[in-house]
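Batch manifest line 594
LIGAND: flavin-adenine dinucleotide
JOB: complex structure
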Amino acid sequence: MDEYRGVLVFCEVEENIAPITLELLQVGRKLADDLGVELLTVVLGSDIKRIADELVYFGPDKVYVIDDPLLKSYNGDACTTVLERLCEALNPDIILFGQTSVGRDLAPRLSFRLKTRLTTDCIDLSIDQDTKLLLQTKPVYGGNALAVYVCEVKPQIVTVRSKTMSPIAYDENRKGEVIEFDTEIDELIIRTTVIEKVKEEATGIKLEDADIIVSGGRGIGGPDGFEQIEELSKLLGGAVGASRPPCDLGWAPSTHQVGLTGKIVTPNLYIAVGISGASQHLAGMSESKRIVAINKDSKANIFKVAHYGVVGDYKDILPAFIKKLGELK
Amino acid sequence: MKEGLNIIVCVKQVPDPEGPPSAFEVDSESKKVIPKGIPPVMSPFDENALEAALRIKDEAACKVTVLSMGKRLAKPVLRKSLAVGADELILLEDNSFEGLDPYWTAITLSSAIKRIGTYDLVLTGRQASDWNAAQVGPGISEILKIPSVTLARKVELREDGVIVERVLPNGYEVIKAPIPSLVTVSNELGDLRYAGIKEIKAVQNKPITTLCASDLKVDLSQTDQIKLLKLYPPVWDRKCNFIEGQDAQEIGVALALKLRVDKVV
Ligand SMILES: Cc1cc2nc3c(=O)[nH]c(=O)nc-3n(C[C@H](O)[C@H](O)[C@H](O)COP(=O)(O)OP(=O)(O)OC[C@H]3O[C@@H](n4cnc5c(N)ncnc54)[C@H](O)[C@@H]3O)c2cc1C
Ligand SMILES: Nc1ncnc2c1ncn2[C@@H]1O[C@H](COP(=O)(O)O)[C@@H](O)[C@H]1O
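JOB STATUS: finished
ARTIFACT:
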């Protein structure tokens, strides 16, 4: 058992160190301290020396760098193989990924390669003091229940839902070692190729970064209603979100979807209009600081998580609300 | 487009995830979710995966085989796949298939796929709506040693490979993979087509193949490496402050003032 040591964080880069990485390093640091082991991180890419050096200030004891032109953009085949080799060399006890586009692709494959198990989309992690195993809490049944798992095979691998852990702060006084992990990548192992990337993001504030979000649901009734949602969000300097039906129906772009399989958001203010509050939607917004729900059904589930509730037809409520907000400005 | 290809779609039967939260009773004792008054359905993303297969079949002759594993499966739910246009339905039924984790599920499904033998494309949902594991698809690809692409919103089979549009948080990417490959499908692909009464009737007596654990030569005697320690319902300790007023006009104004006083706007 003892041959497995250390907590390894998979670092994601989107130009700079991705926010999820800082969240993983924070929880990783706590787990490593609880176990009395080192916190390790690995970063893959091409020309990433700068990122590797910067990572040190976010708390890992060791930063492993795998720098190769073939890793310039994400490729599941290449990444799974180099991580498999790194894990064979380091034997980490725990590996943390983000529940992101990359983490969702890579973590399952790595876990099968290493013949271990994986728990995806964790929202809480801690160490069992008796067994020293990782207690992995994740929502299941779309958020209708919470499950705590423990895995008896090593390494214990999890992906962590974004914004469920606080990010670790930058500290220039931290010291860590940057280590280059040398490994040859045979081009032949790469079987899939990205032909093109298409951006569909709406202009304006990114949903994940917005301070205020106004979201519409099926209750909005059509694309026209979304113009009112748009107007309100503009007035508040916020972003537009949506539950899944408006995205599926084409009233809103699919990049606006909030929830279990959409974006996870925690703005200061989240206004849910015509959204019933299915567990899968709550999964993406229930941790917002202030939640306002406008729904004509007083029994709607959304009111369970809302701080302020308005029962009524949004078509009657919004005009007065928007007008008054305008006056208060 | 290439003709005569074989597509396998993995479909899981789950309690209807669109049921209200009260329909999901959490029994902490047995560590099970007990569905109350909601019917079994095909997991929604698996319906999207089946639709992806049927769209390929719309364009070129190919055979679509649906594979579903469970302890006891509801035939009418899965027969729907035949009614919408799948060619063959294979059920993997065995007491030992109950509650398998994603690792063992992928092993079992993979051995069924190997038994089928010829396949050009394997499709799964991005995640099952019950345990939300999101790993059986990539797991199968690792076991079969074939490439995988996750989160598809479009799948096209060409002469020389599969072209997949993969959902990204800010758009999508177009990925080319060789044949055979595994693709996991997301809801952006579109809903499963409807089956009319006529189609449902037509497949009523169509034979279904059923296989058990021994047919698949999988050893499921040691499958508890990952343990469910606890299962409990979420608790919301919030008290919603309902804004009151004479009419909608007044309520709208009151809400604006409230948010102002609280300094959120
Ligand atoms: C595996 C899985 C993943 C999913 N992922 C997501 C996800 O990421 N995000 C997501 O949102 N959903 C997701 N869903 C779908 C989810 O289960 C619900 O179907 C969806 O959230 C419902 O959206 P809604 O609240 O807009 O629609 P409904 O549930 O139809 O609710 C509409 C609401 O509008 C109200 N209303 C109607 N008219 C008016 C009016 N004029 N004024 C005021 N109120 C009105 C109604 O009272 C009702 O409460 C997922 C489902 C599954 C199975
Ligand atoms: N018991 C099963 N029978 C058939 N397909 C399954 C089964 N379990 C999982 N799958 C497939 O694998 C996908 C991902 O499941 P999961 O990893 O459990 O979330 C599902 O969407 C199905 O396509």
